[in-house]
From TrEMBL, chain A:
The keyword Glycosyltransferase does not apply. The lineage of its organism: Bacteria, Pseudomonadati, Pseudomonadota, Gammaproteobacteria, Chromatiales. It comes from Rheinheimera maricola. It is found in: Cell inner membrane. The chain crosses the membrane at residues 20-37, 73-89, 210-234, 241-260, 266-287, 299-316, 322-341. It is a multi-pass membrane protein. This is Ion-translocating oxidoreductase complex subunit D.
TrEMBL record, chain B:
This is Ion-translocating oxidoreductase complex subunit E. It comes from Rheinheimera maricola. Belongs to the NqrDE/RnfAE family. The chain crosses the membrane at residues 20-50, 71-88, 94-112, 124-148, 183-202. The keyword Manganese does not apply. It is an enzyme of class 7 (translocase). Part of a membrane-bound complex that couples electron transfer with translocation of ions across the membrane.
Length: 355, 231
């Protein structure tokens, strides 16, 4: 038996960083599998590219910084960043997109700030914003879900499309993007946004095939899968419930109030919760232990801020979905939030009681 | 002679206005999207700096200390106006593409900084040399940053050089590679900040290497530290 001399808190979770990161990655799996089944196999190839790039760039920069390479690679944090970025970008985006994005995330956003634990911004989201700002066309080429695709893609076609932007049988990406009726399709959020800008009402836009039940075809199931993974993480006490609940809660309340006020121009709360990257962002990205707020009260403010920003950008901003921007903006406020929400030290009285 | 050498080293490397003093960041970051723009603004700044340093050095003994700053600003502003009119007349397209950043040379802290720190205390000739070296140092940083951003953003070098140098300069344009989609970030302001940060880091790395090498050559022995925090 060995005596461990450790500082407080003495009762803590025995999981190592590597285990936590691995569990978070595993919790993404239902969503990834569903995405591969419903949106084509592109996501698997993107994942492979992203993970290889992440490991290579992490190893390179660790060598440059004279740090132990293998020990740091084993903490799986680069793996998680790569996975989150790969599932956030369109599955059939060209291969160099994910390579540039992952390398930027690891080298610029994570390692240049001092490595894991020192980065102010979420690496995956900063890289997503870099890609969205630099390559707006490639970053919005989402194919419709398989059930709506007019040309079905084999796994080999996915490889061809990612590396040459043409499927093996010679269809271009914009041809693949068109639905059964031959009209090019966008994501539900994008479609709704375009329609509302054109002056259609919500009900008119709702007739399009990309919508299903109360959300988008395919996207509803994808969000449910990430919700399931996220609930597992909360049950395993890997993430605190506060951030996801605050994100979803503030988005829900704002969407509900606005859609009650004007039901023709604002989508309902359930549509917002189950569209785009809502569940993925709320449970997997906003809860990043490094760049998120660390106090209990702070987490609620931080999550609510993200939900509010998402609502504002989705409805009034220039982009159809907004998690990357919302999370980066909220990351900036984290030092301030943490400063003002420091918990009371045990044995000290609260400031209000001092008077 | 040694003063010339010292001024050269100070201006181009040790005290470079772009990389060390970090003066004039606004034009440095805003106009370096292409080499041509960088060259145009760098030359304009060099010209103004030379003129202002010489003028300030000439009047340094006749201006009361209390009003020296307004006088310096007046000198610089009139020189910038002259340069602006010259560019308007002879390089009109470049004048349009640089836009507000030509009049903004007035506010470039590198110029008033040199006027206050050097020209107001030194004779005409050293002031002129200092101006040329500082201007060249600034120009070089602009050029490197411009080249980095232009290569990353468009895959070209000296695109539009004819705007500055006349029709023959069209031959200068080098097409390094062609891509369907440009790397927009390099052309946008964040790209300028990232590039600038990398350049400063590179300079620090080189400086450290040189310092280490000199320490080894001198054979100095670092004393083992027994108390206090280790560095």
């Amino acid at each position: 038996m060995s005596f461990k001399i450790a500082s407080s808190p003495h009762q803590h979770n025995q999981r190592s960083t590597a285990q936590i990161m691995r569990l978070v990655t595993l919790a993404c799996l239902p969503g990834i599998i569903l995405q591969a089944v419903m949106f084509g196999y592109g996501v698997i190839i993107q994942l492979a590219l992203a993970i290889i790039t992440a490991w290579c760039s992490e190893a390179l920069i660790l060598r440059l910084r004279n740090k132990p390479v293998l020990a740091r690679l084993k903490d799986n944090s680069a793996l998680l960043t790569a996975v989150l970025l790969a599932i956030a970008i369109p599955p059939y985006a060209p291969w160099w997109l994910i390579v540039i994005g992952t390398a930027f995330a690891i080298i610029m956003v994570k390692q240049l700030y001092g490595g894991l634990g020192n980065n102010i911004f979420n690496p995956a989201m900063a890289a997503y914003v870099l890609l969205l700002v630099s390559f707006p066309l490639q970053m919005t080429q989402w194919l419709p879900p398989l059930s709506l695709q007019s040309i079905s893609l084999t796994p080999l076609d996915a490889v061809c499309s990612i590396f040459s932007q043409f499927s093996c049988s010679g269809f271009s990406l914009s041809q693949l993007q068109s639905g059964i009726d031959g009209i090019s399709m966008a994501t539900p959020l994008d479609t709704l946004r375009t329609d509302l800008n054109r002056g259609l009402t919500l009900d008119e836009s709702w007739q399009r095939p990309v919508f299903f039940a109360f959300a988008g075809t395919g996207w509803l199931w994808l969000n449910l899968a990430y919700l399931a993974g996220g609930l597992l993480l909360i049950q395993q006490k890997i993430i605190s419930w506060r951030i996801p609940v605050a994100v979803l809660g503030s988005l829900f309340v704002l969407a509900a109030v606005s859609s009650l006020a004007s039901s023709d121009t604002f989508a309902g709360p359930l549509f917002h919760l189950f569209s785009g990257g809502t569940m993925l962002a709320a449970f997997f990205i906003a809860t990043d232990p490094v760049s998120a707020s660390t106090t209990d009260k702070g987490r609620l403010y931080y999550g609510a801020l993200i939900g509010m920003l998402v609502f504002l950008i989705r409805n009034f901003g220039g982009y159809p979905d907004a998690y990357a921007f919302a999370i980066l903006l909220a990351n900036m406020t984290v030092p301030l939030i943490d400063y003002y929400t420091r918990p009371r030290t045990y044995g000290h009285r609260a400031r209000s009681e001092l008077k | 002679m040694s003063q010339v050498k010292e001024l050269t080293i100070q201006g181009l490397w040790k005290n470079n206005p772009g990389l060390v003093q970090l003066l004039g960041l606004c034009p440095l970051l805003a106009v370096t999207a292409t080499v041509t723009n960088a060259l145009g603004l760098g030359l304009a700044t060099l010209l103004v700096l030379l003129g202002s340093n010489v003028a300030v050095s000439l009047v340094r003994n006749h201006v009361a200390n209390e009003i020296r700053i307004p006088v310096f600003v007046l000198i610089i502003a009139s020189l910038v106006t002259a340069v602006e009119l010259l560019m308007n007349a002879y390089t009109y397209d470049l004048y349009l593409s640089l836009g507000i950043f030509i009049p903004l040379i007035v506010t470039n802290c590198a110029i008033i900084g040199r006027a206050e720190a050097f020209a107001s205390k030194n004779a005409v000739l050293p002031s002129a040399i200092d101006a040329i070296m500082m201007g060249l140092g600034f120009l070089l940083v602009l050029l490197v940053l411009g080249a980095m951003r232009e290569i990353l953003g468009q895959g070209t070098l000296f695109d539009g050089a004819d705007l500055l140098l006349g029709d023959w300069a069209k031959a200068l344009r080098i097409e390094l590679f062609t891509v369907d989609s440009h790397f927009l970030l390099a052309m946008l302001p964040p790209g300028a900040f990232l590039g600038m940060g990398l350049l400063i880091a590179l300079k620090n790395v080189i400086d450290n290497k040189i310092k280490q090498k000199q320490a080894v050559e001198k054979g100095s022995i670092a004393r083992a530290r027994v108390t206090g925090a280790a560095q």
